[in-house]
């Protein structure tokens, strides 16, 4: 994997990464604070490219810390594509990265050939959380909880930065309901080791800014879409994912026995569904060129 830095519209240094080699380009819109370690089945796929969100994993915080809105993340996605010389490609999104991927397709349909949306609702993320909580209070509970975690950031730093990631740690994670046992222990350990080192106040600041995006109207999107939902996901219910695309003729929904960490728990399915989506995109492009 190759990493290098680009400069965003406001002068912020953004670290991008790309799997080198000849391959169909695919842009990954990351979840908040996530990196390539969360996608074990794709990190060897030539053509995959992405970036690290502002203030995480090598990307700088913006000088104006208000520049972490959906507009800024979409701009960083476009800058990543432009820097790589990619005019149009399939776009993936995970968790709150689904909001970024969907907005990219809405604003720049000429750049997005297809969408693979994984374990995330298109906007209004706090309303999509906590399926066991009554729907009329989900947003309040999710928003309040995230704000409390933001305030607890310095305490979380002191604890989580010192937490050793061992076989015992990954075993507990995989059998606690946070991550399913179907995940590979080595993949989980690799992903968790880096994830725990976040500045947690900043992490939840990013989540609050992006999570309060209103629910997006996806009706203008005409490209092929695949949604992968986790049946046991407490951060993005299947209903919140399926509802916005239910009327779209090009949408495919697959529900898996997974949690929010679906890319770690069903990596082969993610890879297979991406291949199927790429085939659908090629079929649509072929049909469209024939009509032309």
Automatic annotation (TrEMBL):
<dbReference type="GO" id="GO:0003824">
    <property type="term" value="F:catalytic activity"/>
</dbReference>
<dbReference type="InterPro" id="IPR029058">
    <property type="entry name" value="AB_hydrolase_fold"/>
</dbReference>
<feature type="domain" description="AB hydrolase-1">
    <location>
        <begin position="25"/>
        <end position="267"/>
    </location>
</feature>
<dbReference type="InterPro" id="IPR050266">
    <property type="entry name" value="AB_hydrolase_sf"/>
</dbReference>
<dbReference type="InterPro" id="IPR000073">
    <property type="entry name" value="AB_hydrolase_1"/>
</dbReference>
<protein>
    <submittedName>
        <fullName>Pimeloyl-ACP methyl ester carboxylesterase</fullName>
    </submittedName>
</protein>
<dbReference type="Pfam" id="PF00561">
    <property type="entry name" value="Abhydrolase_1"/>
</dbReference>
